[in-house]
Predict the structure.
Amino acid sequence: MTDKPVALVVGGGSGIGADAAKTLGGRGYDIAVMSSSGKGEALGIDLGGLGFTGSNLNPADLEAFVQASMERFGRIDGLVNCTGHGPKGPVLEISDSDWHLGMDVYLMNVIRAARLVQPIMAAQGGGSIVNVSTFAAFEPDADFPTSAVFRAGLGAFTKLFSTEFAGSGVRMNNVLPGFIDSLPEAPARVARIPIGRYARVRELSETIAFLVSEASSYVTGQNLRVDGGLTHSV
């Protein structure tokens, strides 16, 4: 068993997930990274931790990843859930099968992973789950219909989960990014952002690292918008 905190990153082959893994590794965590592309496996090994190739849409892959992480490290202190993009299109032209796929991509992957790690975290006295969501969860955007719908559901699930398990020290929060500089810059989108630019990936990974860590030990059930002021609320 390691004497360092352990963070698992699901969907960590590139983008926000990969940078979160690097950031957490730089802050003293042992890291396990899973992705379907094989890039997560390579990154986990490069970081001196565990790499695993599998899909977060496959419950058996998630279970095998968690089991391999426990066999390697003996504990799980943080879990970061990232994902790719689900189906898109005009809202009434999305097929039933694509709506169901969207639910798996954006919601069920978190629920399935939470089922696996919550008992482990509770038994060791606590832990933190951080889900990468979207600004569109609370201000739906027609460009991301299945993401907006099911990540709104993720917000509800996160509140239910955090309320149920706060007493055992297991927390869950969502990070809601706006547009990221890994995307092609579109002037019309930039014009919507009060800060006037896309987010840098590191600005998201630093927020994720904060929510994984004990520095955020009194934060749970929240949807933290990291979007340059793109969305508005009081």
The helical segments are 15-26, 39-46, 59-73, 96-123, 145-165, 187-190, 201-212. The chain has a mean pLDDT of 96. The beta strands are 6-10, 30-35, 50-53, 78-81, 127-132, 170-177, 223-226. The first strand starts at residue 6 and ends at 10.
